[in-house]
Amino acid sequence: MNKYNSLYAKNNPDRFNAVAAKRKAAKLQATPKLTKEQNVEIQRFYEEAAKLTKETGISHHVDHILPLQGNEVSGLHVPCNLQILTGPENASKGNKFDFTYENESWRSP
What is the pTM of this model? Predict the structure, then answer.
């Protein structure tokens, strides 16, 4: 999948750049004013995902529990809306949120 995405981006820079710009704009729009501690906490998610990827050899992503550009609901780029998933888990989730009662990812600990 990574090879396909890389090849697609190389062969379609205009489309790839448009999608990347849209995502960046949505992320900026979905990011409220954060405290220094919240910014550090967000950075830790990305560091942990990179560490897990390196240790396991399996790609890990930082996922927004409530997607930034969801069809039914949109979340914010804040620490309580982040989780670490493997690449395949994140890809299968897509830009969706499971509203069923069994989905506990959105509940406070």
Answer: 0.70
